[in-house]
Write a structure and sequence with these properties.
heterodimer; A: alpha/beta; Cytidine Deaminase, domain 2; two-stranded antiparallel ribbon; 18 helices; elongated; B: 187 residues; three-stranded antiparallel β-sheet; 3 helices; 40% strand; transmembrane helix (chain A); PigQ/GPI1 (chain A); PIGQ acetylglucosaminyltransferase (chain A); membrane (chain A)
């Protein structure tokens, strides 16, 4: 079989020595992690390796020899290197030698056993040690779902990535350390660290504790107050602002918990939540600074009342139009006038209420606008709630129209059954035939006729107000979609994919380097980053998302029958 | 390294380049016809004439600037996401098969399939629009069922070479794939 040697590109200019790494026999491949230089004592090397093996649980061993000679190849050196093969017994013993500055190295193996003299082909694969160590290999989304056959099917590449990632401790010693072993690897020129990162790590522990304490206070207060008073708890559940605040509170609890992240997924989730909160608050502050400049709040409050007035006037015009002959249809005059006057009075009440509130609007807006500093999502939720409150009369009209229409439809269907001589059997939940008396039939038919001829009027009112209600629902839905987007988008993962694309790997890609005859095949292994779509899909944050409760057909059916519709369902809400 | 000319399914001339890097490593690249200056100028002129006609009707100069921006953005999007210059297949025995598509803007999109996942490379027939064409595809093994397939990966989708070119590619691939069946017996 072909022998594959994975060689770190940072060791290409290292001095002569022996190669240490991991031998994966099932794939006939050797992953080289570092080069140990002369002089060394074999016993100390073996001791060091067994210690590394104990800590990292990776079977690191001496795999072969590496000779980097600036001059012509020396015969004695090659014999010395072969003798090393007998001290550190490893099957097969790999010998790589580089002459001068030549790109083409010669690679050979001492035969495994004497009865296999055939020379096997060797492939030399260069890899960037630092990038492979930091990268996280993502399995394809469909195979990640099936968890059986994980162990044996674990791809060969993930074995290599695992080996390098787990051997972090091997890369902690650099050449300035005074140990008995001198290694060359990607960090041998000096271990990298950043002062800012270290300071932040130190500062994060007390910050987390403080945050946890504050959060426990806040959540305690919320829980005690909300459950006590019924109107307050009802209001709480209806306002989307409170739900968004609760969601963000949960996020803060996740970040400030003391437990360290167990694996990659948890770490990425914490980082995503943190960056999402940061961006949210930054955008909220930006919005706030824009709003409070040049007295924009005052302008907003000044335009709010005229807008509400305008909406009310438009509604009044609409009702006058309905009370006349809308679209050329002839309405039942009496019913028309009754419904029209009822709704007009309702609007009149609403307008008076708005005018009553008008002196306080500016102050309320001013204080409510301050809450935008909690985040852009909170500001958007407040906007959606304000729209809901301002269009409350449309909602009321819709409910009246729907209830009337629904009653009418039920009445009509029941009397239609009477017309045909049938009855709804509640016990058996089906339609049965029934013999009615003559006067029952007479009154039933009369009522049926009345209801039937009054149907167009009620249906028209219902149609108009349902359309208005749907318009408001669509506007609110769009705002919530935007809030959802900001909530669930994994900003940190996307920025990581943009700036450090090797950290999120979908796979690898090989590039064939220059070849020379009778030298091993040279390949360069690079990391193939994950596509943006898969990044978003893998690291999406879960939300209390609103999604349409009903399919289109059931929605249409409900509209036709006049049942009240609540198109958006929140996760965690009980079914009606 | 050798290069030969063939025809694609739609009649355009394509070039197949074969390189043997080593006994178990081969690279096969199919080069598609490049973007022609004629068609580019024709499309751009048509778009700008239409925009000028609209400008004469509406007297709004925004139409002209919008047309220029749309043409530029459309060209960049086309070069970066749609126009494939070269599709290549790199078969490394005992490592895997790598499929690369290079776009006209220089972008390269690569997929590497490990040898343990590859069941076989075959030529299939398919109905494409109004024709029946041949295409080369890689069959991926289902990890649970040794006889089953988990996925079919079609190759050379934008250049669509004809059967004669596909046979050459098929033969080259099979020579390397056969090695993995014979070698375990000898060691």
């Amino acid at each position: 079989m072909v022998l594959k040697v994975f060689f770190p590109s940072c060791c290409a200019s290292a001095e002569s020595g022996i190669l240490i790494g991991r031998w994966i026999s099932e794939q006939n491949s050797a992953v080289i992690l570092a080069v140990v230089h002369f002089p060394f004592i074999p016993v100390q090397v073996k001791q060091y390796l067994s210690e590394v093996q104990r800590v990292t649980k990776v079977s690191v061993s001496v795999l072969g020899s590496w000779s980097n000679s600036k001059q012509e190849k020396e015969e004695s050196l090659s014999e010395f290197l072969e003798d090393l093969g007998t001290i550190f017994s490893h099957e097969p013993w790999i010998q790589i030698s580089k002459e001068g500055d030549s790109k083409f190295w010669s690679c050979s193996t001492l035969p495994k056993n004497s009865n296999n003299p055939k020379e096997e082909e060797i492939i030399l694969v260069y890899y960037d040690q630092r990038k492979v160590m930091l990268s996280h290999l993502h399995p394809p989304l469909d195979t990640a779902a099936s968890t059986d056959h994980k162990a044996e099917d674990a791809s060969k590449l993930s074995a290599i990535f695992d080996t390098v990632a787990k051997s972090k401790i091997l890369f902690m010693t650099d050449r300035y350390d005074d140990g008995p072993i001198k290694l060359t690897h990607w960090q041998s020129d000096g271990v990298e660290a950043s002062i800012i990162v270290e300071l932040m790590k130190q500062a994060s522990v007390p910050a987390c504790m403080l945050l946890t304490f504050l959060l426990s206070l806040v959540s305690g207060v919320c829980r005690s107050w909300v459950l006590k008073f019924w109107p307050l708890s009802f209001l709480w559940s209806k306002l989307s602002t409170c739900e968004q605040l609760g969601h963000r509170l949960q996020h803060l609890q996740v970040i400030s918990s003391n437990k360290k992240a167990q694996n990659q997924t948890q770490l990425m989730r914490k980082a995503n939540i943190f960056v999402s909160l940061l961006i949210d608050v930054a955008l909220g502050m930006l919005l706030m600074s824009w709003l409070y400049r040049k007295n924009r709040i005052g302008h907003l409050a000044d335009t709010l009342i005229p807008v509400a007035d305008h909406v009310a006037e438009e509604l009044q015009d609409l009702l006058q139009w309905l009370m006349g002959a809308p679209a050329g249809l002839k309405m039942n005059r009496a019913l028309d006038q009754v419904l029209g006057r009822f709704f007009l009075y309702h609007i009149h009440l609403w307008i008076s209420y708005i005018h009553l509130m008008s002196p306080f609007i500016e102050m309320i807006l001013w204080y409510v606008g301050l809450s935008a500093c909690l985040g852009l999502t909170v500001a958007l939720c407040i906007l959606s709630d304000i729209i809901a409150l301002l269009t409350f009369h449309i909602y009321c009209f819709y409910v009246y129209g729907a209830r009337l229409y629904c009653l009418k439809i039920y009445g009509l269907s029941s009397l239609w059954r009477l017309f045909r001589g049938k009855k709804w059997n509640v016990l058996r939940q089906r339609v049965d035939s029934c013999s009615y008396d003559l006067d029952q039939l007479f009154i039933g038919t009369l009522l049926f006729t009345i209801l039937l001829f009054l149907l167009p009027t009620t249906a028209l009112y219902y149609l108009v107000f349902t359309l208005l209600r749907l318009l408001v629902v669509i506007v609110q839905g769009l705002i919530h979609l935007l809030v959802d987007l900001i909530d669930s988008l994994p900003f940190y993962s996307v920025i990581l994919r943009l700036c450090r694309s090797y950290r999120l790997a979908a796979g690898v890609k090989f590039r064939v380097l220059e070849q020379q005859d009778r030298k091993p095949l040279r390949l360069l292994m690079q990391i193939n980053p994950l596509s943006y779509g898969s990044v978003v899909q893998t690291y999406r944050l879960p939300t209390y998302s609103c999604y349409p409760k009903d399919s289109w057909t059931s929605l249409c059916k409900k509209l036709f029958l006049g049942e009240l519709i609540y198109p958006w369902k929140h996760k965690g809400e009980k079914q009606d | 390294m050798e290069e030969r000319w063939y025809r694609s399914a739609s009649g355009a001339r394509i070039a197949l380049r074969r390189r043997q890097h080593s006994a178990s490593c081969r690279e096969l690249a199919v080069r598609c016809p490049r973007l022609r200056l004629r068609s580019l100028s024709a499309t751009t002129s048509a778009a700008w004439l239409a925009a000028y006609g609209l400008f004469v009707l509406t007297e709004n100069s925004m139409v002209l600037s919008a047309a220029i921006i749309i043409t530029l953005v459309g060209l960049i999007v086309y070069l970066h996401f749609v126009k494939i210059d070269q599709e290549s297949l790199l078969v490394i025995g005992s490592l895997g098969i790598q499929v690369t598509s290079s776009y006209a803007s220089g972008k390269e999109s690569t997929t590497f399939i490990e040898m343990s996942q590859v069941k076989d490379v075959v030529i299939n027939e398919a109905i494409h629009m109004q024709k029946v064409i041949y295409y080369l595809c890689i069959l991926l093994q289902d990890p649970g069922d040794p006889q089953g397939l988990s996925e079919v990966v079609p190759l050379f989708q934008s250049s669509k070479p004809r059967l004669d070119c596909l046979i050459e590619v098929y033969k080259s691939c099979q020579e390397i794939l056969e090695q993995r069946k014979t070698v375990p017996q000898s060691s």
